[in-house]
């Protein structure tokens, strides 16, 4: 088997055209051509460097080298590549980065902290889809004196207009004046989720910062700074997303099942519920002490919204996304 070839549906997913399952449907529908010939058979292998791939008449660009960056997004910057209102964007902060990359998910304009950027569509999808369970860690300041019961509610799940939130890990950090600092880990990515969770328990979020995305942390980054991920960080990130590096022979060692095993997924949810009841936020004892004046230290299958990987509005520094347009009438994917 030629080590330079890859299955067609996998190549389409890697370019961010669609998920692998959606790409298979596009192939069956006759929407994909290889070197001018319509292909409907699944599993056809192609050479991304030599073969000309078209989807709905639009030619797929040659694959760029995968790039991975960590950015400390400041408050007031929007997570998009272009903004019609002329506001500063995260892409505008990437001085010295000339290649096209996209934000993985998004952070609200008023939220600061760690944002990953890449041109690896497959990894971005896995990092943001809730079924893969990649955790995102935030530090939040909530208005008021948040009780142990309210923190427990955050951990077990609160009712939002788009459904009950999944179990989270919540830890009380400190109380400061008329505010409470907490650390919260979630694996969902609904729009303004943590802010809405704060509203749901009657303690609006005043400040919010993402401090980690899976195994990747802010480290020594300062607001507005960007750095490439190290090889060790990339391996850890792919592992967290259920992926593995390719072998020296070019074979893909990614886990064959896109969905985590039912046993593992069920055990994780059950464990999260169990932890929520027993005090994932480092024990009710510490919370009671904090309440008494101490410092207290010590769209998915269900239809819920989530950020599906690479931000859809981004075209990058070289407009056109993954496509090269051939001569002839325009068509949309």
TrEMBL record:
GO biological process, alphabetically ordered: enzyme-directed rRNA pseudouridine synthesis
What is one term from the GO cellular component aspect held by the record?
A: cytosol
Question: What domain of life?
Answer: Bacteria
In terms of SUPFAM superfamilies, this protein maps to: Alpha-L RNA-binding motif, Pseudouridine synthase
Which UniProt keyword terms apply here? Isomerase, RNA-binding
Q: Which Pfam families match?
A: PseudoU_synth_2, S4
Which EC number applies?
A: 5.4.99.-
The record's listing under CDD domains reads: PseudoU_synth_RsuA_like, S4
What residue stretches are annotated with the RNA-binding S4 domain?
6-70
Query: For the region Disordered, what residue ranges are annotated?
Result: 240-333
- Basic and acidic residues bias spans: 246-256
Please give the InterPro entries that the UniProt record associates with this protein: PsdUridine_s_RsuA/RluB/E/F_cat, PsdUridine_synth_cat_dom_sf, PsdUridine_synth_RsuA/RluA, PsdUridine_synth_RsuA/RluB/E/F, PsdUridine_synth_RsuA/RluB_CS, RsuA_PseudoU_synthase, S4_RNA-bd, S4_RNA-bd_sf
Molecular function (Gene Ontology), one example: rRNA pseudouridine synthase activity
> Which NCBIfam families does this entry report, sorted A to Z?
pseudouridine synthase
Q: Which family does it belong to?
A: Belongs to the pseudouridine synthase RsuA family.
Instruction: Kindly provide the name given to this protein in its UniProt entry.
Output: Pseudouridine synthase
Q: What organism is listed for this UniProt entry?
A: Heliobacterium modesticaldum (strain ATCC 51547 / Ice1)
């Amino acid at each position: 088997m030629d080590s330079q070839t890859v299955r067609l549906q996998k190549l389409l997913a890697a370019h961010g055209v669609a998920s692998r399952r959606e790409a298979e449907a596009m192939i069956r529908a006759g929407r994909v051509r290889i070197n001018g010939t319509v292909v409907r058979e699944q599993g056809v292998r192609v050479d991304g460097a030599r073969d000309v791939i078209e989807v709905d008449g639009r030619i797929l660009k040659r694959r760029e080298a995968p790039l991975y960056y960590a950015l400390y997004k400041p408050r007031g910057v929007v997570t998009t590549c272009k903004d019609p209102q002329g506001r500063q964007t995260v892409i505008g902060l990437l001085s010295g980065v000339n290649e096209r990359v996209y934000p993985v998910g998004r952070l609200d304009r008023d939220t600061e902290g760690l944002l990953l950027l890449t041109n690896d569509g497959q990894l971005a999808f896995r990092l943001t889809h809730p079924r893969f369970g990649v955790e995102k860690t935030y530090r939040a300041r909530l208005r008021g004196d948040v009780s142990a019961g309210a923190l427990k509610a955050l951990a077990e799940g609160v009712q939002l207009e788009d459904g009950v939130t999944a179990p989270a890990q919540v830890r009380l950090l400190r109380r400061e004046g008329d505010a409470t600092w907490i650390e919260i880990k979630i694996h969902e990515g609904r729009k303004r989720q943590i802010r809405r969770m704060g509203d749901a328990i009657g303690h609006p979020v005043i400040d919010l910062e993402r401090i980690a995305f899976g195994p990747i942390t802010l480290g020594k980054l300062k607001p507005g700074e960007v750095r490439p991920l190290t090889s060790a960080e990339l391996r850890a990130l792919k592992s967290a997303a259920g992926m593995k590096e390719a072998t020296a022979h070019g074979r893909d060692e990614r886990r064959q099942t896109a969905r985590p095993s039912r046993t593992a997924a069920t055990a994780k949810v059950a464990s999260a519920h169990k932890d929520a009841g027993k005090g994932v936020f480092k024990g009710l004892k510490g919370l009671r002490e904090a309440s008494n004046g101490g410092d207290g230290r010590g769209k998915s299958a269900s239809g819920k919204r989530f950020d599906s990987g690479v931000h859809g509005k981004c075209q990058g520094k070289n407009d056109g996304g993954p496509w090269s347009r051939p001569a002839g009438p325009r068509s949309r994917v």
